[in-house]
Amino acid sequence: MLYTLPIIAALAGWLINSIAIRILLNQLPKRREKLAADLGALAGKQFSFAAVKQKLTDPEKVKSIIPVVETHLDGFLRDRLPKAMPVLSMFIGDSTINQIKSHLVAELDTLFPVMINQYLDNVEKDLNLEKIISDKISHTTDEQMQQAVKGFLGKELNTFKLLGAVSGLVIGLICLALLVLMP
């Protein structure tokens, strides 16, 4: 019976750490609002709208949408405009359409970055990323929050339980050695 002491101590260490993890996970929903506010603030500080603007107004990105604009303009100038204004179709031929299209595309090439930048300025004023993230976290269920933590820290939580078992085993072996060595 005396020699089962290390095994009992190992089980006790594992059980204590398992209970500690369960208590920790059960505390998460109670601290959800603070966690949501802190994570929202962190994301708000880390997110750079300037970087998004820079990427979206990059001349190469703008040039990549020009073919779509050209196709749309071509359809507009050849089909929809003559239907809307039949008199114009008498004066506009292929060379005129191509000239108008090339001038419009050149103008839009300069206008798009300005438009996108203005649009993003408006979005930035209206978008409160910190609040959006905070609200999303606040509205997660207890189970979702616990599953997220388990998914993120699963390996570490299991290591913590194992550490409890190992430390219990070591303590049990020390106690056993003291009991055996001391009369």
UniProtKB/TrEMBL annotation:
Record carries keyword Membrane: yes
Segments passing through the bilayer: 6-25, 162-182
Keywords: Membrane, Transmembrane, Transmembrane helix
Protein name: DUF445 domain-containing protein
Annotated source species: Chitinophaga jiangningensis
Lineage, uppermost ranks: Bacteria, Pseudomonadati, Bacteroidota, Chitinophagia, Chitinophagales
